[in-house]
TrEMBL record:
<dbReference type="InterPro" id="IPR040096">
    <property type="entry name" value="Ric1"/>
</dbReference>
<feature type="region of interest" description="Disordered">
    <location>
        <begin position="246"/>
        <end position="276"/>
    </location>
</feature>
<feature type="domain" description="RIC1 C-terminal alpha solenoid region">
    <location>
        <begin position="824"/>
        <end position="1005"/>
    </location>
</feature>
<dbReference type="GO" id="GO:0005829">
    <property type="term" value="C:cytosol"/>
</dbReference>
<keyword id="KW-0472">Membrane</keyword>
<dbReference type="InterPro" id="IPR009771">
    <property type="entry name" value="RIC1_C"/>
</dbReference>
<dbReference type="Pfam" id="PF25440">
    <property type="entry name" value="Beta-prop_RIC1_2nd"/>
</dbReference>
<dbReference type="GO" id="GO:0034066">
    <property type="term" value="C:Ric1-Rgp1 guanyl-nucleotide exchange factor complex"/>
</dbReference>
<dbReference type="InterPro" id="IPR001680">
    <property type="entry name" value="WD40_rpt"/>
</dbReference>
<dbReference type="GO" id="GO:0000139">
    <property type="term" value="C:Golgi membrane"/>
</dbReference>
<feature type="region of interest" description="Disordered">
    <location>
        <begin position="161"/>
        <end position="189"/>
    </location>
</feature>
<dbReference type="GO" id="GO:0006886">
    <property type="term" value="P:intracellular protein transport"/>
</dbReference>
<dbReference type="Pfam" id="PF07064">
    <property type="entry name" value="RIC1"/>
</dbReference>
<dbReference type="GO" id="GO:0042147">
    <property type="term" value="P:retrograde transport, endosome to Golgi"/>
</dbReference>
<protein>
    <recommendedName>
        <fullName>RIC1 C-terminal alpha solenoid region domain-containing protein</fullName>
    </recommendedName>
</protein>
<feature type="compositionally biased region" description="Acidic residues">
    <location>
        <begin position="171"/>
        <end position="181"/>
    </location>
</feature>
<dbReference type="InterPro" id="IPR015943">
    <property type="entry name" value="WD40/YVTN_repeat-like_dom_sf"/>
</dbReference>
Length: 1025
């Protein structure tokens, strides 16, 4: 769903020192770079240095060189870890009056030509970096993780987890903040301290207590942490409060039970000097998510004693190096020394996950010297903010995986050769650190130093599917790719059949978003396209604009203050020419309706609907608008067009309390109404009879209503699949695809036929629930699907390609369009279930396509291969030419007889299949001699010519070659000179003496030279063939 595009940009800070790390701020608008002596603050857009702080030589000798830097959750402080076990505290202060860069002195008329780029319209603010203090940590500092009120760190001796509060100054307490930079801040005082020792059973859930914690990763959105221990295990950890009358020992400051900070740290309600006055103590709870020994049983969130159970050592290649949390999909990724990545669900009730998905690192099939030792260990990982993609940096490569586990890009597999002496894209050889920019359309990567270039920081541009920000399962026709400043729309659905399947055809329309909007509203947050593909809407940080394919023009707010007064939150959808928008404005949450025919202005809003809580997502089914809010409520509106406007009519609402635990994980929604309800039912009752589809993170859930009383409705929940990245539904149309559900899980497309058909559902009386909907078809794909062209029987997708040239010092990223026929998969399902009439009815809808015969040929080939494989599995001694009685081949042949292209399909399939299987095939299809005669009688001369090869290999041609001569005579009468030439080649191939060819020419009364000249081929050249 994320694909690198174009070429990477290079960042340089002018420093001669090697950059050891880079990290973005919590709000992702800034990032830092760190060398052994200098800390620099950058702005993400435009990527320029705003402030730097270099430590003196005396400080480096006394406190050690810089090793690692971390942002505080509020972005106002930075903690630097040094090589001498010290913490250097840096305060980051914004100075709006400072101008880090001055405007050029170009004339006013010339400056108009230099417009600000996306995100560059706002003024650059200055920043000041000042030293707040230095903290010495006893016991060998291992890692540090700043929090809102405390600094968390781990030590080696003793093995412990500790935290100290941020220093507070007397001036700050008096309302005065000292902005001076000083090396010795005597006004600071330290308050409170907490320590948890690993060897004293303070953390009983650890698999081993004789370890140290070498890495701590904090997830601000969920408040949980990831710990990596020295034995290579990874843990899911969180801090909780435990009440006791009197806590033994010093457990730090008194805390309030219901007062927590935004980043998950319990916030002290009263600061103390460490006195033992707390009635609430803090404890850590966790679960092992990598390296957990299955022989140890976990009960009540704690691990049983390990004394009687040997704890195995993890192999070095399986030891964890980094951990990354995916809150939208409730996943955790663990990188290892061997380069592998393990995906697991977050633990439930502190029990280790039972299963994990292995993501193997990419391999270079060309055995390039860059990857001779593999990709190396995982050095850094980060998920996109929407959770759909994971960026990974290895020692000798980089890559991006989708949430389903598909590798969509890597630094190993590329086309072409590179000149190692001049190649400057150092990140292709390894990445030390990486992070995503706002909008997830740029990946910042830090590469290790490379001999032939002084560049270490790069920006890799990306394109992503609009489904990452807004799932529109009902619109499967148009694929839309969102870029940093443009939108690409797939137009193959409107092209002829051959243009769709031609990989060289230009089927993407490039629509550039106006710079006047992008300069101040970057990044793009939502993109929506209408069902007919003619209208497009784009929403950035504030406001929105929309575009028409007919006029080719954009419409935006004439009054910039009205544009900046609201932001799109929850998405937007097109209903004909009306744009339905969920917005937030000054803590007011609304649904607004804008018309494409009117100017964008506050006085042109067609309708407003006010909500008490923010809108999470919108879904449109026919004229029904579904609005799901963050308070776990689903609202149903009818869209009512009037003579001069369009309004919304509230039909009802329902709470999903007890069904959806976290409204934030709902990524898609749709429903299906019974036909009787659509025609004569009251709209107010729609919610009680509708089958509802929910995409909860990666879990595809079906809710089917069932009346349990006169006025009560019970929902039967069925989890259809896990790790679904996105889904489509098809509520009307073609045969078995009507009411079908499509989902992609990272490996292939999964189809549930009639999943939303309410009439087909039956109740299991024993279980008192509906029978489960079973998966019908699974289509493996070697590319990433983007849309389904139902009327053409094709899945459209994209695959990424990296190209390199020896003459260029950089790599080029591009996306290629790929297609896959799904007709034979659905037909195979019908045939396997002996549904001949359904298969014929379904295929009849597609027989007008130019590639319909090819689809039937693929179907026959798969059935033939599957039948032979089934025979091999049942009895190894059975010849490959025979087919089992249970094979679907006889039914497939009967199915083909309903179409005119059956004879062509059979012989084309036979010629592409091993000859050892021909007899078994034609035992069911029929004697090839009979089929040859049928082709002659039907005038299918070319098809008859194809059957000659079958007859020859099955030894059914007589020595006089009478069948070949008859076909040659018919070809001369046609005349079909190309077929005549091919028949002559065939006769010469089966009789090298040329006697058979000479006899045939005599019998038909022609000469070889005459036929060759008529067919346009040189006689001498033909004789040599």
């Amino acid at each position: 769903m994320y694909f690198p595009t174009a070429v990477a940009k290079t960042l340089k800070d002018g420093s001669e020192e090697t950059i050891s790390m880079a990290s973005n701020s919590p709000r992702k608008t800034l990032f830092l770079s760190l060398t052994k002596s200098t800390l620099s603050i950058w702005r993400v857009r435009p990527p320029v240095v705003l402030a730097s702080l270099s430590r003196a030589e005396v400080s480096l000798k006394s406190h050690g060189e810089n090793l690692f830097a971390s942002w505080a959750p509020d972005g106002g402080r930075i903690v630097i870890q040094t090589s001498a076990s010290h913490l250097v505290l840096i305060r980051v202060q914004k100075i709006p009056s400072a101008k880090p860069y001055q405007a050029s002195s170009l004339p006013h008329a010339a400056q108009r030509r230099f417009l600000p780029g996306p995100g560059e319209g706002q003024a650059l603010n200055g920043y000041r970096l000042s030293l707040e203090g230095v903290v010495r940590i006893h016991g060998d500092l291992l890692c540090v993780s700043p929090r809102t009120t405390h600094i968390l760190f781990t030590t080696k001796d003793p093995p412990a987890v500790q935290r100290i509060p941020w220093p507070t100054s007397q001036e700050s307490e008096d309302g005065k903040e000292d902005e001076s930079v000083t090396n010795e801040p005597p006004q600071n005082k330290w308050i409170g301290h907490d320590t948890w020792l690993l060897e004293e059973n303070d953390l009983p859930w650890l698999v081993r207590s004789d370890v140290t914690i070498v890495s701590v990763t904090h997830n601000r959105s969920s408040g949980v942490e990831g710990w990596v221990t020295s034995d290579g295990r990874a843990y899911y950890v969180f801090l909780f409060e435990e009440e006791e009358g009197a806590a033994p020992g010093d457990h730090g400051p008194q805390v309030s039970e219901n007062d927590s900070s935004a980043d998950g740290d319990p916030r002290p309600s009263g600061l103390t000097d460490g006195a033992d006055t707390a009635d609430v103590i803090l404890n850590w709870s966790g679960a092992c998510v990598h390296g957990y020994p299955r022989s140890i049983q976990a009960q009540n969130g704690t691990v049983q004693s390990h004394e009687s159970t040997p704890i195995f050592e993890l192999p070095y290649s399986e030891r964890a190096t980094s951990i990354a949390f995916n809150s939208p999909f409730s996943l955790v990724a663990v990188g290892t020394e061997g380069g592998r990545i393990y995906l697991s669900n977050l633990p439930i009730n502190n029990l280790p996950p039972l299963h994990s998905q292995l993501l193997t690192p990419p391999s270079d099939h060309r055995q390039h010297r860059r990857s001779a030792g593999g990709v190396g260990s995982v050095l850094s990982m980060e998920w996109t903010s929407d959770g759909y993609a994971l960026a990974v940096g290895w020692e000798r490569s980089w890559g991006v995986y989708s949430v389903g586990g598909r590798c969509v890009a890597s630094g190993l597999n590329f086309e072409g050769d590179i000149d190692e002496s001049s190649f400057e894209d150092a990140f292709m050889d390894g990445v030390v650190a990486l992070f995503w920019a706002p909008g997830n359309l740029e990946l910042f990567v830090l590469a290790p130093p490379m001999g032939n270039t002084d560049s270490q920081m790069f920006i890799v541009p990306f394109a992503k599917s609009t489904l990452t920000s807004q799932q529109s399962p009902d619109n499967t026709r148009y694929a839309v790719l969102q870029m940093d400043q443009a939108v690409m729309i797939y137009r193959g659905a409107d092209q002829p059949d051959m243009s769709v399947i031609n990989p060289e055809a230009d089927v993407w329309q490039h629509v550039k978003v106006p710079l006047t909007y992008m300069a101040t509203n970057w990044p793009i947050r939502y993109v929506s396209i209408s069902n007919d593909g003619r209208l497009l809407a784009v929403a950035g940080r504030r406001g929105l604009i929309h575009w028409s394919a007919i006029s080719g023009r954009w419409k935006s707010f004439a009054d910039v203050s009205q544009e900046q007064a609201f932001m799109v939150r929850g998405g937007f959808l097109w209903y004909n020419h009306v744009l339905i928008v969920a917005i937030e404005s000054s803590r007011s949450y609304q649904i607004r309706l804008y018309s494409r025919d009117l100017d964008l202005a506050a006085n042109n809003i067609l309708h407003r609907e006010v909500f008490t809580s923010p809108v999470a997502l919108l879904s449109l089914v026919d004229n029904s608008l579904l609005v799901y809010t963050v308070d776990n409520t689903l609202f149903h509106f009818l869209i009512l067009p009037t003579e001069d406007s369009v309004t919304l009519h509230l039909c009802g609402s329902i709470s999903f309390e007890g069904i959806v635990a976290l409204p934030s994980v709902v990524r898609g929604m749709s429903w299906m109404l019974p036909p009787a309800q659509k025609q004569i039912g009251e709209p107010a009752n729609d919610l009680t009879v509708a089958t509802i589809l929910l995409l909860l993170g990666g879990r595809l859930v079906l809710l089917r209503p069932r009346k349990v009383g006169s006025h009560e409705v019970k929902y039967d929940m069925q989890i259809l699949a896990e790790r679904i990245e996105f889904c489509w539904i098809h509520l009307g149309g073609i045969g078995a695809l009507e009411n079908s559900l499509w989902g992609y899980d990272g490996t292939g497309v999964r189809i549930w036929l009639d999943a939303l058909t309410i009439e087909a559902a039956s109740v299991n009386q024993e279980l008192d629930a509906y029978h489960s909907v079973q998966e019908s078809v699974n289509i493996p794909l070697n590319f990433y699907p983007m849309s389904v062209l139902m009327d053409k029987g094709i899945i459209i997708g994209v695959e990424q390609e990296t190209a390199a040239r020896a003459s260029l010092p950089f790599a080029m990223f591009r996306t290629l369009t790929s297609t896959h026929l799904f007709l034979h998969h659905v037909l195979r399902y019908h045939l396997d279930h002996s549904q001949l009439s359904e298969a014929v009815a379904f295929a009849s809808n597609y027989q007008h396509l130019v590639f319909f015969a090819h689809a039937l040929e693929v179907l026959l080939h798969t059935v033939l291969e599957a039948g032979t494989q089934s025979d091999s599995d049942m009895a190894a001694e059975t010849p490959a030419s025979t087919l089992s009685e249970n094979s679907a081949l006889p039914l497939a042949i009967e199915f083909l007889d309903h179409f005119d292209s059956a004879l062509d399909v059979v012989v084309a399939c036979a010629r592409k299949t091993e000859m050892s299987r021909w007899r078994g095939l034609f035992d069911i299809v029929g004697n090839p001699k009979t089929l040859f005669e049928t082709c002659l009688e039907s005038g299918l001369l070319k098809t008859a010519g194809s059957y000659l090869l079958v007859l020859h290999n099955l030894e059914q041609l007589d020595e006089t070659h009478a069948d070949v001569i008859r076909l040659l005579r018919r070809a001369l009468e046609a005349p079909d000179w190309v077929l005549c030439r091919e028949l002559m080649h065939f006769l010469r191939s089966i009789d090298e003496t040329g006697a058979a060819l000479e006899q045939a020419l005599v019998e038909v009364g022609m000469k070889e030279e005459q036929i060759m000249s008529e067919s346009g081929e040189d006689t001498v050249g033909a004789t040599e063939c």
